[in-house]
User: Fold these one by one.
Assistant:
Number 1:
Amino acid sequence: MHHFHYKNESLHCENVDLSSITDTYGTPTYIYSAQTFRDSYQRLDKALAEIDHEISYAVKANSNIAILHLLKELGSGFDIVSAGELYRVIAAGGDAAHCTFAGVGKTDEEINYALDQGIYCFNVESIHELEVINSLAKAKGIKAPVALRVNPNVDAKTHKYISTGKAENKFGIDFEAIEGAYAHVAANLDSLEIKGLQMHIGSQLTQVKPFEEAVNKVLSLVRMLKDTYAIEFFSIGGGIGIVYEDALASGQQSWWDKQTDEQRPLTPELYAERIVPLLKPLGLKILLEPGRFIAGNAGVLVTECLYEKSGKSKSFRMVDAAMNDLIRPALYEGYHQIVPFKQSQISDKTLIGDIVGPICETGDFFCQSVELPNIERGDYIALMSAGAYGFTMASNYNSRPLPTEILVDGDEFKVIRKRQTFTDLIAGESV
Ligand SMILES: *Cc1c(COP(=O)(O)O)cnc(C)c1O
Protein backbone atom coordinates (compact mmCIF):
# COMPACT_ATOMS: atom_id res chain seq x y z
CA MET A 1 0.00 0.00 0.00
CA HIS A 2 1.21 3.47 -0.84
CA HIS A 3 -0.02 6.94 -1.69
CA PHE A 4 0.84 7.33 -5.38
CA HIS A 5 -2.27 7.48 -7.56
CA TYR A 6 -4.04 9.30 -10.37
CA LYS A 7 -6.29 12.16 -9.42
CA ASN A 8 -8.00 14.14 -12.21
CA GLU A 9 -5.99 12.06 -14.68
CA SER A 10 -2.64 13.20 -13.34
CA LEU A 11 -0.21 11.35 -11.12
CA HIS A 12 -0.19 12.47 -7.48
CA CYS A 13 1.77 11.65 -4.38
CA GLU A 14 -0.70 12.08 -1.52
CA ASN A 15 -2.39 15.41 -2.42
CA VAL A 16 0.44 16.82 -4.49
CA ASP A 17 0.41 16.74 -8.29
CA LEU A 18 3.85 15.44 -9.27
CA SER A 19 4.06 17.88 -12.18
CA SER A 20 3.93 20.77 -9.71
CA ILE A 21 7.18 19.39 -8.27
CA THR A 22 8.95 18.82 -11.58
CA ASP A 23 7.87 22.28 -12.81
CA THR A 24 9.96 23.82 -10.04
CA TYR A 25 12.69 21.31 -9.34
CA GLY A 26 13.22 19.54 -12.63
CA THR A 27 14.32 15.94 -13.12
CA PRO A 28 15.63 13.39 -12.35
CA THR A 29 14.11 13.64 -8.87
CA TYR A 30 13.21 11.18 -6.16
CA ILE A 31 9.81 11.85 -4.60
CA TYR A 32 8.81 10.18 -1.34
CA SER A 33 5.51 9.90 0.49
CA ALA A 34 5.79 10.53 4.22
CA GLN A 35 2.43 8.88 4.87
CA THR A 36 3.53 5.70 3.09
CA PHE A 37 6.57 5.48 5.39
CA ARG A 38 4.31 5.94 8.40
CA ASP A 39 1.75 3.42 7.19
CA SER A 40 4.30 0.67 6.51
CA TYR A 41 6.11 1.21 9.78
CA GLN A 42 2.92 1.25 11.83
CA ARG A 43 1.38 -1.69 10.02
CA LEU A 44 4.40 -3.87 10.74
CA ASP A 45 4.64 -2.59 14.31
CA LYS A 46 0.99 -3.41 14.90
CA ALA A 47 1.26 -6.88 13.39
CA LEU A 48 3.96 -7.67 15.98
CA ALA A 49 2.14 -6.09 18.91
CA GLU A 50 1.83 -9.44 20.69
CA ILE A 51 5.56 -9.76 21.27
CA ASP A 52 8.19 -7.52 22.83
CA HIS A 53 9.84 -6.14 19.69
CA GLU A 54 11.77 -3.28 18.16
CA ILE A 55 11.88 -2.33 14.49
CA SER A 56 15.46 -1.50 13.51
CA TYR A 57 14.99 0.14 10.15
CA ALA A 58 17.80 -0.84 7.74
CA VAL A 59 19.31 2.56 7.00
CA LYS A 60 20.99 1.45 3.77
CA ALA A 61 17.60 1.22 2.04
CA ASN A 62 17.05 4.98 2.23
CA SER A 63 19.31 7.05 4.45
CA ASN A 64 18.21 10.64 3.88
CA ILE A 65 18.20 12.27 7.31
CA ALA A 66 14.64 13.56 6.84
CA ILE A 67 13.49 9.96 6.37
CA LEU A 68 15.51 8.78 9.39
CA HIS A 69 14.02 11.59 11.44
CA LEU A 70 10.50 10.66 10.38
CA LEU A 71 11.09 7.02 11.40
CA LYS A 72 12.74 7.97 14.68
CA GLU A 73 9.66 10.02 15.55
CA LEU A 74 7.59 6.85 15.05
CA GLY A 75 9.80 5.01 17.53
CA SER A 76 12.09 3.18 15.13
CA GLY A 77 15.57 1.94 15.96
CA PHE A 78 18.16 1.57 13.21
CA ASP A 79 20.26 -1.17 11.67
CA ILE A 80 23.44 0.35 10.29
CA VAL A 81 26.20 -1.08 8.12
CA SER A 82 28.83 1.67 8.39
CA ALA A 83 30.02 4.47 10.65
CA GLY A 84 28.68 6.90 8.05
CA GLU A 85 25.19 5.53 8.58
CA LEU A 86 25.59 5.94 12.35
CA TYR A 87 26.63 9.54 11.74
CA ARG A 88 23.47 10.04 9.68
CA VAL A 89 21.24 8.55 12.39
CA ILE A 90 22.74 10.89 14.97
CA ALA A 91 22.43 13.88 12.59
CA ALA A 92 18.76 12.98 12.15
CA GLY A 93 18.20 13.14 15.92
CA GLY A 94 18.30 9.36 16.39
CA ASP A 95 19.79 7.57 19.36
CA ALA A 96 22.93 5.41 19.06
CA ALA A 97 21.56 3.27 21.90
CA HIS A 98 18.90 2.06 19.41
CA CYS A 99 21.39 1.15 16.68
CA THR A 100 22.67 -2.29 15.73
CA PHE A 101 25.79 -2.45 13.58
CA ALA A 102 25.87 -5.15 10.90
CA GLY A 103 28.37 -6.07 8.19
CA VAL A 104 31.24 -8.45 7.48
CA GLY A 105 34.00 -5.84 7.24
CA LYS A 106 33.82 -3.19 9.95
CA THR A 107 37.06 -1.20 10.16
CA ASP A 108 38.82 -0.37 13.45
CA GLU A 109 37.84 3.30 12.99
CA GLU A 110 34.20 2.32 12.56
CA ILE A 111 34.24 0.05 15.61
CA ASN A 112 35.86 2.76 17.74
CA TYR A 113 33.35 5.37 16.58
CA ALA A 114 30.43 3.03 17.37
CA LEU A 115 31.91 2.22 20.80
CA ASP A 116 32.31 5.93 21.55
CA GLN A 117 28.74 6.65 20.50
CA GLY A 118 27.40 3.79 22.64
CA ILE A 119 25.48 1.68 20.12
CA TYR A 120 23.11 -1.03 21.31
CA CYS A 121 24.95 -3.96 19.73
CA PHE A 122 27.51 -5.10 17.16
CA ASN A 123 26.17 -7.91 15.02
CA VAL A 124 29.37 -9.83 14.44
CA GLU A 125 30.03 -12.01 11.42
CA SER A 126 33.29 -13.86 12.20
CA ILE A 127 35.48 -15.07 15.08
CA HIS A 128 38.23 -12.81 13.83
CA GLU A 129 35.97 -9.76 14.07
CA LEU A 130 35.02 -10.76 17.65
CA GLU A 131 38.67 -10.72 18.59
CA VAL A 132 39.26 -7.30 17.05
CA ILE A 133 36.21 -5.76 18.76
CA ASN A 134 37.34 -7.34 22.05
CA SER A 135 40.79 -5.76 21.85
CA LEU A 136 39.45 -2.33 20.80
CA ALA A 137 36.98 -2.37 23.70
CA LYS A 138 39.71 -3.50 26.09
CA ALA A 139 41.90 -0.56 25.05
CA LYS A 140 39.04 1.74 26.03
CA GLY A 141 38.44 -0.10 29.30
CA ILE A 142 34.86 -0.92 28.34
CA LYS A 143 32.79 -3.92 27.30
CA ALA A 144 31.43 -4.09 23.76
CA PRO A 145 27.88 -5.43 23.34
CA VAL A 146 27.82 -8.22 20.74
CA ALA A 147 25.47 -10.62 19.00
CA LEU A 148 26.63 -13.21 16.52
CA ARG A 149 25.09 -13.49 13.10
CA VAL A 150 24.18 -17.07 12.37
CA ASN A 151 24.02 -18.28 8.81
CA PRO A 152 21.09 -20.72 9.00
CA ASN A 153 21.80 -22.19 5.55
CA VAL A 154 18.30 -21.84 4.13
CA ASP A 155 17.33 -20.90 0.60
CA ALA A 156 15.56 -17.53 0.60
CA LYS A 157 14.35 -18.15 -2.99
CA THR A 158 15.23 -14.66 -4.12
CA HIS A 159 17.73 -13.23 -6.64
CA LYS A 160 21.19 -14.73 -6.08
CA TYR A 161 22.75 -11.31 -5.45
CA ILE A 162 20.37 -10.57 -2.56
CA SER A 163 20.33 -14.01 -0.97
CA THR A 164 22.41 -14.00 2.21
CA GLY A 165 21.43 -17.02 4.31
CA LYS A 166 23.03 -19.89 2.39
CA ALA A 167 26.22 -21.55 3.59
CA GLU A 168 28.07 -20.40 0.45
CA ASN A 169 27.26 -16.69 1.09
CA LYS A 170 29.88 -14.56 2.82
CA PHE A 171 27.50 -13.64 5.64
CA GLY A 172 27.41 -14.81 9.23
CA ILE A 173 28.92 -17.72 11.09
CA ASP A 174 28.06 -21.26 9.98
CA PHE A 175 25.18 -22.81 11.86
CA GLU A 176 27.41 -25.72 12.88
CA ALA A 177 30.09 -23.40 14.32
CA ILE A 178 27.93 -20.92 16.17
CA GLU A 179 27.81 -22.64 19.58
CA GLY A 180 31.58 -22.90 19.60
CA ALA A 181 31.85 -19.20 18.77
CA TYR A 182 29.68 -18.21 21.74
CA ALA A 183 31.68 -20.51 24.02
CA HIS A 184 34.88 -18.86 22.78
CA VAL A 185 33.52 -15.41 23.63
CA ALA A 186 32.46 -16.50 27.11
CA ALA A 187 35.76 -18.24 27.86
CA ASN A 188 38.31 -15.92 26.27
CA LEU A 189 36.99 -12.51 25.24
CA ASP A 190 36.32 -10.69 28.48
CA SER A 191 35.76 -7.24 26.95
CA LEU A 192 32.67 -8.47 25.14
CA GLU A 193 29.16 -8.70 26.53
CA ILE A 194 26.92 -11.29 24.87
CA LYS A 195 23.61 -9.59 24.05
CA GLY A 196 21.85 -11.65 21.43
CA LEU A 197 21.66 -13.65 18.24
CA GLN A 198 21.06 -12.26 14.77
CA MET A 199 20.22 -13.62 11.33
CA HIS A 200 19.19 -12.18 7.97
CA ILE A 201 18.52 -14.58 5.12
CA GLY A 202 18.04 -12.25 2.17
CA SER A 203 16.06 -9.47 0.60
CA GLN A 204 12.82 -9.15 -1.40
CA LEU A 205 11.29 -12.35 0.00
CA THR A 206 7.71 -12.67 -1.16
CA GLN A 207 6.96 -15.96 0.59
CA VAL A 208 6.77 -16.56 4.33
CA LYS A 209 8.17 -20.11 4.15
CA PRO A 210 11.91 -19.30 4.11
CA PHE A 211 11.44 -17.08 7.19
CA GLU A 212 9.56 -19.85 8.98
CA GLU A 213 12.18 -22.39 8.01
CA ALA A 214 15.04 -20.20 9.25
CA VAL A 215 13.36 -19.34 12.56
CA ASN A 216 12.46 -23.00 13.15
CA LYS A 217 16.02 -24.01 12.43
CA VAL A 218 17.51 -21.74 15.11
CA LEU A 219 14.84 -21.97 17.84
CA SER A 220 16.64 -24.51 19.99
CA LEU A 221 19.88 -22.57 19.58
CA VAL A 222 18.13 -19.39 20.78
CA ARG A 223 16.75 -21.22 23.83
CA MET A 224 20.18 -22.58 24.66
CA LEU A 225 21.74 -19.09 24.35
CA LYS A 226 19.08 -17.64 26.62
CA ASP A 227 19.70 -20.32 29.27
CA THR A 228 23.48 -20.26 29.05
CA TYR A 229 24.36 -16.62 28.35
CA ALA A 230 21.14 -14.80 29.29
CA ILE A 231 20.86 -13.14 25.87
CA GLU A 232 18.25 -10.38 25.73
CA PHE A 233 17.37 -10.29 22.03
CA PHE A 234 16.95 -12.34 18.89
CA SER A 235 17.03 -10.41 15.61
CA ILE A 236 15.29 -12.11 12.72
CA GLY A 237 16.66 -9.64 10.17
CA GLY A 238 14.86 -7.90 7.35
CA GLY A 239 13.91 -9.09 3.90
CA ILE A 240 10.13 -8.69 3.64
CA GLY A 241 9.48 -8.10 -0.06
CA ILE A 242 7.31 -5.50 -1.76
CA VAL A 243 5.21 -5.34 -4.92
CA TYR A 244 7.15 -4.25 -8.00
CA GLU A 245 5.13 -5.73 -10.86
CA ASP A 246 1.73 -4.11 -10.21
CA ALA A 247 3.16 -1.29 -8.16
CA LEU A 248 0.66 1.43 -9.03
CA ALA A 249 -2.43 -0.74 -8.55
CA SER A 250 -1.05 -2.14 -5.28
CA GLY A 251 -1.59 1.27 -3.69
CA GLN A 252 -5.29 0.39 -3.53
CA GLN A 253 -6.82 -2.02 -1.03
CA SER A 254 -9.04 -3.33 -3.85
CA TRP A 255 -5.96 -4.74 -5.60
CA TRP A 256 -4.98 -6.71 -2.49
CA ASP A 257 -8.54 -7.99 -2.09
CA LYS A 258 -8.44 -9.34 -5.65
CA GLN A 259 -5.33 -11.47 -5.14
CA THR A 260 -5.77 -15.18 -4.57
CA ASP A 261 -3.87 -16.84 -1.73
CA GLU A 262 -1.22 -18.11 -4.17
CA GLN A 263 -0.76 -14.69 -5.76
CA ARG A 264 -0.83 -12.64 -2.60
CA PRO A 265 2.56 -11.11 -1.83
CA LEU A 266 3.83 -11.30 1.71
CA THR A 267 1.97 -8.99 4.09
CA PRO A 268 3.01 -8.01 7.63
CA GLU A 269 -0.11 -9.76 8.89
CA LEU A 270 0.73 -13.08 7.23
CA TYR A 271 4.37 -12.76 8.29
CA ALA A 272 3.31 -12.16 11.90
CA GLU A 273 0.67 -14.89 11.83
CA ARG A 274 3.32 -17.49 11.00
CA ILE A 275 6.35 -16.10 12.86
CA VAL A 276 4.93 -14.69 16.10
CA PRO A 277 3.72 -18.08 17.46
CA LEU A 278 7.26 -19.41 17.02
CA LEU A 279 8.88 -16.42 18.73
CA LYS A 280 6.47 -15.66 21.55
CA PRO A 281 7.40 -18.61 23.80
CA LEU A 282 11.05 -17.50 23.73
CA GLY A 283 10.32 -14.57 26.02
CA LEU A 284 13.03 -12.46 24.36
CA LYS A 285 13.05 -9.05 22.75
CA ILE A 286 12.64 -9.60 19.00
CA LEU A 287 14.40 -7.24 16.61
CA LEU A 288 13.37 -6.83 12.98
CA GLU A 289 15.47 -5.07 10.35
CA PRO A 290 13.15 -4.13 7.49
CA GLY A 291 14.51 -1.78 4.86
CA ARG A 292 12.76 -2.35 1.56
CA PHE A 293 9.39 -3.04 3.17
CA ILE A 294 9.39 0.36 4.87
CA ALA A 295 10.88 2.45 2.05
CA GLY A 296 10.42 0.63 -1.26
CA ASN A 297 6.89 1.61 -2.26
CA ALA A 298 7.22 4.99 -0.52
CA GLY A 299 9.27 6.53 -3.33
CA VAL A 300 9.42 7.02 -7.08
CA LEU A 301 12.08 8.37 -9.41
CA VAL A 302 10.64 10.86 -11.86
CA THR A 303 12.27 11.56 -15.17
CA GLU A 304 11.60 13.49 -18.38
CA CYS A 305 11.55 12.02 -21.86
CA LEU A 306 14.27 13.53 -24.04
CA TYR A 307 14.13 11.63 -27.32
CA GLU A 308 12.30 8.96 -29.24
CA LYS A 309 13.96 6.52 -31.57
CA SER A 310 12.58 3.68 -33.63
CA GLY A 311 15.22 1.15 -34.54
CA LYS A 312 14.94 -1.79 -36.91
CA SER A 313 13.67 -4.16 -34.28
CA LYS A 314 12.69 -1.92 -31.39
CA SER A 315 11.53 1.47 -30.18
CA PHE A 316 13.36 3.50 -27.57
CA ARG A 317 12.56 6.38 -25.28
CA MET A 318 15.60 8.20 -23.95
CA VAL A 319 14.99 9.80 -20.56
CA ASP A 320 17.09 12.10 -18.36
CA ALA A 321 17.50 9.61 -15.51
CA ALA A 322 20.12 6.90 -15.81
CA MET A 323 21.63 3.87 -14.12
CA ASN A 324 23.72 6.17 -11.94
CA ASP A 325 20.45 7.45 -10.41
CA LEU A 326 18.78 4.04 -10.08
CA ILE A 327 20.97 1.02 -10.60
CA ARG A 328 18.63 -1.81 -9.63
CA PRO A 329 17.72 -2.88 -13.19
CA ALA A 330 21.39 -3.04 -14.22
CA LEU A 331 22.63 -4.57 -10.98
CA TYR A 332 20.13 -7.32 -10.33
CA GLU A 333 17.52 -7.21 -13.03
CA GLY A 334 15.30 -5.13 -10.77
CA TYR A 335 11.96 -4.20 -12.28
CA HIS A 336 10.29 -0.81 -11.87
CA GLN A 337 6.84 -0.17 -13.26
CA ILE A 338 6.77 2.81 -15.65
CA VAL A 339 3.88 5.18 -15.00
CA PRO A 340 3.27 8.33 -17.10
CA PHE A 341 2.27 11.53 -15.31
CA LYS A 342 -0.79 11.80 -17.57
CA GLN A 343 -3.17 8.89 -17.23
CA SER A 344 -4.21 9.30 -20.86
CA GLN A 345 -0.70 8.29 -21.90
CA ILE A 346 -1.03 4.76 -20.58
CA SER A 347 -0.51 2.72 -23.69
CA ASP A 348 -3.55 1.53 -25.59
CA LYS A 349 -1.55 0.28 -28.55
CA THR A 350 1.20 -2.28 -28.35
CA LEU A 351 4.36 -0.33 -28.99
CA ILE A 352 7.06 -2.54 -27.53
CA GLY A 353 10.35 -1.02 -26.57
CA ASP A 354 12.93 0.08 -24.04
CA ILE A 355 13.25 3.08 -21.76
CA VAL A 356 16.91 3.96 -21.48
CA GLY A 357 19.17 6.55 -19.89
CA PRO A 358 21.93 8.67 -21.46
CA ILE A 359 24.88 6.67 -20.09
CA CYS A 360 27.23 4.83 -22.43
CA GLU A 361 26.49 1.36 -21.07
CA THR A 362 24.18 -1.27 -22.52
CA GLY A 363 23.07 -1.91 -18.94
CA ASP A 364 21.67 1.63 -18.73
CA PHE A 365 17.98 0.79 -19.11
CA PHE A 366 14.89 0.98 -16.92
CA CYS A 367 12.86 -1.53 -18.86
CA GLN A 368 13.37 -3.67 -21.91
CA SER A 369 10.83 -4.93 -24.43
CA VAL A 370 7.78 -3.73 -22.55
CA GLU A 371 4.66 -1.93 -23.70
CA LEU A 372 5.72 1.71 -23.79
CA PRO A 373 3.54 4.58 -22.59
CA ASN A 374 2.61 7.13 -25.28
CA ILE A 375 5.21 9.64 -24.23
CA GLU A 376 7.20 12.05 -26.32
CA ARG A 377 9.82 14.70 -25.69
CA GLY A 378 8.91 16.81 -22.65
CA ASP A 379 6.62 14.23 -21.05
CA TYR A 380 7.27 12.80 -17.62
CA ILE A 381 7.18 9.32 -16.17
CA ALA A 382 7.59 7.87 -12.70
CA LEU A 383 9.63 4.76 -12.04
CA MET A 384 7.64 3.17 -9.25
CA SER A 385 8.91 1.42 -6.10
CA ALA A 386 12.19 3.33 -6.09
CA GLY A 387 12.14 4.39 -2.43
CA ALA A 388 14.56 1.65 -1.30
CA TYR A 389 18.01 1.01 -2.77
CA GLY A 390 17.39 3.90 -5.17
CA PHE A 391 19.08 7.11 -4.11
CA THR A 392 21.35 5.27 -1.65
CA MET A 393 22.94 3.38 -4.54
CA ALA A 394 23.20 6.43 -6.81
CA SER A 395 26.63 7.53 -8.01
CA ASN A 396 28.25 10.33 -9.98
CA TYR A 397 29.12 8.04 -12.90
CA ASN A 398 29.46 10.06 -16.12
CA SER A 399 29.84 13.11 -13.88
CA ARG A 400 26.11 13.35 -13.45
CA PRO A 401 25.08 15.33 -10.34
CA LEU A 402 23.06 13.34 -7.79
CA PRO A 403 19.31 13.92 -8.13
CA THR A 404 17.06 16.03 -5.91
CA GLU A 405 15.08 14.30 -3.16
CA ILE A 406 11.66 15.59 -2.15
CA LEU A 407 9.39 14.54 0.68
CA VAL A 408 5.64 14.96 0.25
CA ASP A 409 3.43 15.11 3.32
CA GLY A 410 -0.28 15.65 2.72
CA ASP A 411 -0.74 18.85 0.72
CA GLU A 412 2.86 19.94 1.12
CA PHE A 413 6.31 19.00 0.00
CA LYS A 414 9.84 20.01 0.80
CA VAL A 415 13.29 19.49 -0.66
CA ILE A 416 15.17 17.08 1.61
CA ARG A 417 18.26 17.04 -0.55
CA LYS A 418 19.20 19.60 -3.16
CA ARG A 419 20.35 18.55 -6.59
CA GLN A 420 24.15 18.48 -6.70
CA THR A 421 25.86 21.31 -8.51
CA PHE A 422 28.96 21.16 -10.71
CA THR A 423 30.90 22.56 -7.73
CA ASP A 424 29.68 19.61 -5.63
CA LEU A 425 30.85 17.26 -8.37
CA ILE A 426 34.51 18.20 -8.03
CA ALA A 427 34.49 18.99 -4.30
CA GLY A 428 37.65 17.68 -2.67
CA GLU A 429 39.51 17.28 -5.97
CA SER A 430 42.59 19.23 -6.98
CA VAL A 431 44.70 19.53 -10.12
C1 LIG B 1 20.22 -5.16 3.97
C2 LIG B 1 19.95 -5.71 5.31
C3 LIG B 1 18.68 -5.61 5.88
C4 LIG B 1 17.49 -5.02 5.14
O1 LIG B 1 17.03 -5.84 4.12
P1 LIG B 1 15.64 -5.51 3.40
O2 LIG B 1 15.51 -6.56 2.38
O3 LIG B 1 15.76 -4.16 2.82
O4 LIG B 1 14.58 -5.59 4.43
C5 LIG B 1 18.50 -6.07 7.16
N1 LIG B 1 19.52 -6.62 7.86
C6 LIG B 1 20.76 -6.74 7.34
C7 LIG B 1 21.84 -7.33 8.16
C8 LIG B 1 21.01 -6.29 6.05
O5 LIG B 1 22.22 -6.42 5.54
Note: The pocket of pyridoxal-5'-phosphate is lined by residues 58, 60-61, 79, 102, 200, 203, 237-239, 289-293, 388 (CB under 6 Å).
Number 2:
Amino acid sequence: MSMLLKSVLFLSMLTLAWASHTDVYITNSLEGREDLHIHCKSKDDDLGPHVLRINQTFKISFSTNFFFGTLFFCSFQWGNGHLLHFDVYDQKRDSNKCKECKWSIKKDGPCRDELELDSTYTRKCYEWNH
Ligand SMILES: *[C@@H]1O[C@H](CO)[C@@H](O)[C@H](O)[C@H]1NC(C)=O
Protein backbone atom coordinates (compact mmCIF):
# COMPACT_ATOMS: atom_id res chain seq x y z
CA MET A 1 0.00 0.00 0.00
CA SER A 2 1.33 3.44 -0.87
CA MET A 3 2.20 5.87 1.87
CA LEU A 4 -0.42 8.31 0.60
CA LEU A 5 -3.18 5.70 0.64
CA LYS A 6 -2.19 4.67 4.14
CA SER A 7 -2.36 8.27 5.31
CA VAL A 8 -5.76 8.81 3.71
CA LEU A 9 -7.11 5.63 5.31
CA PHE A 10 -5.71 6.60 8.69
CA LEU A 11 -7.25 10.09 8.52
CA SER A 12 -10.63 8.65 7.45
CA MET A 13 -10.63 6.28 10.40
CA LEU A 14 -9.76 9.09 12.79
CA THR A 15 -12.60 11.20 11.42
CA LEU A 16 -15.04 8.30 11.81
CA ALA A 17 -13.91 7.75 15.38
CA TRP A 18 -14.41 11.41 16.20
CA ALA A 19 -17.76 11.95 14.49
CA SER A 20 -20.48 9.97 16.11
CA HIS A 21 -24.11 9.82 15.10
CA THR A 22 -26.64 10.76 17.75
CA ASP A 23 -30.45 10.77 17.82
CA VAL A 24 -32.49 12.77 20.31
CA TYR A 25 -36.19 11.95 20.71
CA ILE A 26 -38.67 14.27 22.41
CA THR A 27 -42.00 12.72 23.38
CA ASN A 28 -45.04 14.54 24.72
CA SER A 29 -45.79 12.75 28.00
CA LEU A 30 -47.70 15.62 29.64
CA GLU A 31 -49.91 14.31 32.43
CA GLY A 32 -52.90 16.37 31.27
CA ARG A 33 -52.55 15.24 27.60
CA GLU A 34 -52.12 18.83 26.41
CA ASP A 35 -50.57 19.58 23.03
CA LEU A 36 -46.87 20.38 23.47
CA HIS A 37 -45.40 23.26 21.46
CA ILE A 38 -41.67 22.90 20.92
CA HIS A 39 -39.02 24.87 19.08
CA CYS A 40 -35.49 23.46 18.98
CA LYS A 41 -32.27 25.10 17.85
CA SER A 42 -28.53 24.67 17.87
CA LYS A 43 -25.90 27.31 17.20
CA ASP A 44 -26.18 26.51 13.46
CA ASP A 45 -29.69 25.08 13.00
CA ASP A 46 -33.21 26.29 13.67
CA LEU A 47 -35.50 23.25 13.53
CA GLY A 48 -38.64 25.41 13.54
CA PRO A 49 -41.79 25.27 15.67
CA HIS A 50 -43.64 21.94 16.05
CA VAL A 51 -46.75 20.81 17.88
CA LEU A 52 -46.75 17.34 19.46
CA ARG A 53 -50.01 15.67 20.43
CA ILE A 54 -49.92 13.36 23.46
CA ASN A 55 -47.37 10.54 22.94
CA GLN A 56 -46.10 12.01 19.66
CA THR A 57 -42.33 12.16 19.21
CA PHE A 58 -40.01 14.65 17.52
CA LYS A 59 -36.61 13.33 16.38
CA ILE A 60 -33.37 15.29 16.03
CA SER A 61 -30.44 13.57 14.27
CA PHE A 62 -26.92 14.95 14.10
CA SER A 63 -23.25 14.07 14.30
CA THR A 64 -21.24 15.08 17.29
CA ASN A 65 -17.61 15.89 16.76
CA PHE A 66 -14.74 15.39 19.14
CA PHE A 67 -13.71 19.02 18.74
CA PHE A 68 -17.02 20.84 19.01
CA GLY A 69 -19.39 20.79 21.95
CA THR A 70 -22.74 20.12 20.29
CA LEU A 71 -25.68 21.79 22.02
CA PHE A 72 -29.37 21.56 21.09
CA PHE A 73 -31.81 23.62 23.15
CA CYS A 74 -35.59 23.81 22.95
CA SER A 75 -38.48 25.85 24.21
CA PHE A 76 -41.57 24.04 25.51
CA GLN A 77 -45.06 25.38 26.08
CA TRP A 78 -48.53 23.97 26.69
CA GLY A 79 -51.94 25.36 27.60
CA ASN A 80 -51.63 28.95 28.81
CA GLY A 81 -48.32 28.15 30.49
CA HIS A 82 -45.03 29.95 30.37
CA LEU A 83 -42.38 29.26 27.77
CA LEU A 84 -39.93 26.80 29.38
CA HIS A 85 -36.43 25.93 28.18
CA PHE A 86 -34.20 22.88 28.32
CA ASP A 87 -30.95 21.70 26.69
CA VAL A 88 -32.06 18.45 25.07
CA TYR A 89 -28.50 17.59 24.02
CA ASP A 90 -25.34 18.87 25.66
CA GLN A 91 -22.30 16.97 24.44
CA LYS A 92 -20.42 17.54 27.70
CA ARG A 93 -23.32 16.19 29.77
CA ASP A 94 -24.59 13.51 27.38
CA SER A 95 -21.84 12.06 25.19
CA ASN A 96 -21.33 8.99 27.39
CA LYS A 97 -24.92 8.74 28.64
CA CYS A 98 -26.82 8.13 25.40
CA LYS A 99 -26.47 7.64 21.66
CA GLU A 100 -30.24 7.59 21.43
CA CYS A 101 -31.44 10.14 23.96
CA LYS A 102 -35.16 9.65 24.55
CA TRP A 103 -36.85 12.40 26.54
CA SER A 104 -40.33 12.09 28.02
CA ILE A 105 -41.60 15.61 28.57
CA LYS A 106 -43.50 15.94 31.85
CA LYS A 107 -44.79 19.08 33.50
CA ASP A 108 -42.02 19.07 36.13
CA GLY A 109 -39.33 18.61 33.47
CA PRO A 110 -37.85 16.13 30.99
CA CYS A 111 -37.06 12.52 32.04
CA ARG A 112 -35.05 9.79 30.36
CA ASP A 113 -33.39 6.43 31.01
CA GLU A 114 -29.64 6.89 31.43
CA LEU A 115 -26.89 4.36 30.92
CA GLU A 116 -25.00 3.59 34.14
CA LEU A 117 -21.42 2.33 34.43
CA ASP A 118 -22.74 -1.20 35.11
CA SER A 119 -24.67 -1.06 31.79
CA THR A 120 -28.08 -0.80 33.43
CA TYR A 121 -30.45 2.09 32.83
CA THR A 122 -31.85 4.40 35.50
CA ARG A 123 -34.74 6.83 35.12
CA LYS A 124 -33.49 10.41 35.61
CA CYS A 125 -35.61 13.54 35.65
CA TYR A 126 -34.26 17.06 35.14
CA GLU A 127 -35.55 20.50 36.00
CA TRP A 128 -36.37 23.16 33.44
CA ASN A 129 -33.61 25.69 32.81
CA HIS A 130 -33.71 28.67 35.14
C1 LIG B 1 -49.79 7.42 25.81
O1 LIG B 1 -48.87 6.40 26.15
C2 LIG B 1 -49.09 5.84 27.43
C3 LIG B 1 -47.94 4.92 27.74
O2 LIG B 1 -47.66 4.08 26.68
C4 LIG B 1 -50.45 5.14 27.44
O3 LIG B 1 -50.70 4.56 28.70
C5 LIG B 1 -51.53 6.16 27.11
O4 LIG B 1 -52.79 5.51 26.99
C6 LIG B 1 -51.22 6.89 25.81
N1 LIG B 1 -52.17 7.98 25.68
C7 LIG B 1 -52.83 8.23 24.55
C8 LIG B 1 -53.81 9.35 24.59
O5 LIG B 1 -52.64 7.59 23.52
Note: Helices lie at 3-18, 91-94.
